[in-house]
Amino acid sequence: MQLLFYVFALVTIVGALGMVLSHNIVHSAFYLVLSFIGLALIYFSLSAPFLGAVQLMVYSGAVAILVIMAIMMVRRTDMTVSNPTQSLIKRFVGAGTAALFFVLMGLSIVLTPLGGGDAALPATEAADLAGLLLSRFALPFELIALLLLAAMLGALLLARGGDES
Amino acid sequence: MSLLFDSVGVQEILALSALLFSIGLYGLFTRRGIIAILMCVELMLNAVNLNLIGFDRLYVHDGSGQVMALFSIAVAAAEIAVGLALTIRLFRLRFTTNADEADTIREFKDFRN
Amino acid sequence: METSFLSGLALWLRGEIYGVTGIPVLSDLALDVIGIALLLGIISMAAIVFTYAERKVCAFMQVRLGPNRVGGRFGLLQPVADMLKLMSKEDIMPEGADKVLWALSPALLFVPAALVYAFFPFDAGAVLADVNVGVFLLFAISGQAVLPFLMGGYASNNKYSMVGGFRVVSQMISYEAPLLFSLLGILMLTGSMRLEDIVEAQAGGLWFVFLQPLAFVIFLISAVAETNRTPFDLVEGESEIIAGPFTEYSGMRWALFFLAEYANLLTAAILATTFFLGGYLGPDFLPGFAWFFLKAVLMVFLIMWFRWTFPRTRVDQILSFGWKAMLPLSILNVFLTGVVMCALGLV
Description:
The complex is a heterotrimer of chains A (165), B (113) and C (347).
Chain A: H1 2-21, H2 25-45, H3 49-74, H4 88-111, H5 126-134, H6 138-160
Helix pairs in contact in A: 1-2, 2-3
Chain B: H1 2-5, H2 10-30, H3 34-60, H4 64-94
Chain C: H1 5-21, H2 24-61, H3 78-88, H4 99-115, H5 134-142, H6 146-155, H7 159-190, H8 195-200, H9 208-211, H10 213-226, H11 238-241, H12 251-276, H13 288-309, H14 315-343
């Protein structure tokens, strides 16, 4: 299982790096999809298949398509230089800050005494998740539904433009 | 053989999550296009989801971490939908999708193009 | 677990391999490899048979003879001739194409189309990937087929390809929602997302097509729309946009698109069989997998019948039909199912 995790982690990291380093924004988006799929595979290997399926459906199925459609709607010319970055100095500062963050997180991961977890337990069934959603997390569940509705209406109104008939 | 049969530890999951978050952070700092920035935010949210699911699978076991990840995914979906709609609107108004060019209400002291 | 011909065969094969190698993991692995090879065989077989069947069905509907030269009076070798033609064609890459994405698109399109076959219960106990969230995972994977279309449409650097890619996205996303919602009623009735449980819940002849007729109609229409076939083949509507995302592809690359298309056709038929027609269940004089394939082939014939009967719709009609008719109806179906289940005290 560890081997599988490392392979999938590699896929995810390659996708993420490709996304931030690619000069073509369409390539960036497809690298992001690779990263999403790698994460979904990791969820499967952690025996959380429902979340893996949600990840596939929502992220690489819907979010990625949304992103690519938006790119194509706002870019009609050459895509090869479509992903502008900051100047070199700013990029170094950004890389330094990100690296600093990673080192801090890594230190806290290494230094925190975490008891050995147990991943060998059977997977959580989708029915258990549904039970949690409708009992303990019923209120957040309703709120999320409201939020999604509001986001849908807002996105619709913003993208098509309510003022011009 | 331990590589094949041992289950993965929490430290590896956390390290991967931190790495993904840092990569997203770097992209957030260096990209200028709004869509690229939104993609980086999505990556960072994904890193957090990995943490939630990893802790749930290794420590909590009752699925509440996965439910939290579900909520996070829903919020991320709402965020990207509104963000992209705003980007398209901005493009219609100003013919650009660069975040630093959406500056109509700033002072004209150091006007740059 | 109930035993059937296929699962018994698998068990026997596993025993034989275990006898030779003596390592249990290896015999499992070998069995998986054999299963994957079988599935790929089924898919390529389907493509070969369906090209021939489509020509013959079309000819029958239009009172023609169809293929009748290559390979005897019935033109049985026509698929071979088609394949040779495709293989001998020149592989042309358009100028200004995004080379990597352009080459990846047909291959990536085939992956989800083939992956979903792992979830189908061909017979009792004969499932390659027996997952508890089967239905959901299946649709999550088949939903990945949208991206390669868009990839090919963008990478071809051709306006017709681009328009085709956009059409694929809008059509497949629009019809995925009613497709999934139409199955919710069934999931409520069975209380499980395992495909085999859904089939077993239809034992005794009470197929879900009788319990959920509205859902069946919605499912069939949405499935045809998902597979991009006439009357919903706007994606490649040749009178408008040449061949949509496939415009710039030729030879074997185009053949991969073709293969994925026929794999999707069989997938739609198999899904209808599994969810609504009782899957591998049937009277005992035929083995389970024979019933399964019989029903699937009947569904394929039905979908081909659609193709040669209905005219192509317009793109705005198809989208407004999906959102304004299919989706509300499928939600109504879920609601009605819940009300009836409550009234009968099944909850």
